[in-house]
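Self-study notes.
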Amino acid sequence: MNFFPLRRALVLLSLCVGMLPPAFAADTYQVVHTYPHDQHAYTQGLFYLDGHLYESTGLNGQSSLRMEDLETGRILQLQDVPAKYFAEGLAPWGSTLIQLTWQDHVALVYDRATFRFLHTLPYDGEGWGLTADDKEMILSDGTATLRFLDPTTFKVLRRVTVRDHGLPVTQLNELEFVQGEIYANIWHSDRIARIAPATGKVLGFVDLTGLLPQSERSSPEAVLNGIAYDPVHDRLFVTGKLWPKLFEIRVIPEKAKPASPPHKK
């Protein structure tokens, strides 16, 4: 979520002890279109609605809520977040926008049309990513647990543990609900996990290695983070923190490998 050494050390530790899923065959991607993106935006939340992108950017003193033009990347509407908050995930609910904060235990609720601040909603623990289905908000907090929340009170309705082949998948970050599945960025990786909402089972991974070359990343924290889906036109968009580009991609399912030929003595 940020560049603090402790958080990075935890990522390395989780890799060492096997808390992140093992590498294996995954879906790949094809770039359909490339759009400009504000390379100074520390992207924490992203979604697409009614022809526009909505984005939450983080860091204390730099956090913001934005509505943007997809084609040009131009900011059409902007609300700065008070400096005491480190903004995180973002999702719409009805006529409102709900924006998480990292460690302040409150979500900020805005009027979607005007960006006028309305009130806060409390929650325990950290806030990382946020999305919604047609009944509940879904929150990630960096652990393997996803919380399903009442959208009006943020009361926890249920929890699921995200697992791949029985192992918990941690570092779940920005979320998006896509055709009945939860897509989750895995922090400090180039992978997106596809998760079954009912069980937390990982249905597969999307490997986005090479989407933005390391040479175009301005810092070690310029990592993949930002998923937006346009259900009307079936378009999937991805970007990252401090990335100068946003990509429309097509996911290419991993094909079954052909059987190995018989071994000849």
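Second protein, same conventions, sequence then structure:
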Amino acid sequence: MIKNQISSQKRAETLLHNKIKALYVTNENVKSEVYQKINTKNFRFDVFDDEKSMIYEIQRSSLGGRFSQKIQTLLDSTNYQIRIIHPIVHKQKVTRLDGDNKISTSYRNFYTHVYHFFEHLVHFKVSYQERLQFDILLVYEHLFKQFSGYYQRTGRRRFYTSDRDLVSIDHVKKIRCKEDFYTFLPIDLPTHFTNQDLFNSFTFKRKSRRNSRLPGKITYSLCQLGLLERVGKKRNAHVFSRRD
């Protein structure tokens, strides 16, 4: 069973990616792995719905770089709607293997939530358009790590990630319009606010350095999208307001 699940180190797509992709292939009008030439460049879409003229792109890691450029080109050069599916791991089962033999299994809880979406959105250099949508998935992941030898200095075992599998999708946050982005801002937030005001309005279960950095990432991301604007300063802090 394990042998069938584990892919080689050079596998292009993980089991997690393929299982999420399969969830969006809902009928015969929806195809996976679609190639299309746009402005002399070849593009590959994870999923394409011909009836709705909808592109689905699954992106687990950074939303910046080439991915950001790809989305900007598609928005500028086509009339397609684009939905970005962004899985965030909040729980993880880790299986360590030596060939086909299981060495150990452990479990992790990352205490992540949908707001951690902005840790990757800060790299997304695209202005918001009505044709742009997001699905944020909180997923329970099964991570497979394959034994690859020992570290010379310490003698500890060395592992590489051989595959990722999807156990379950535990929560979905859908963004279909700009008002959905504003739902990330607390209701009691003042009309004009700073990052500190935003942090004080949150009720995170865990107080951590990671969570304390989120307000700055949220305001930066929403400014890049054109949904917030800087309207002044309060001492050394930028003051933000919605751009309706």
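Instructor comment on the second fold: The chain has two domains: 2-176, 185-244.
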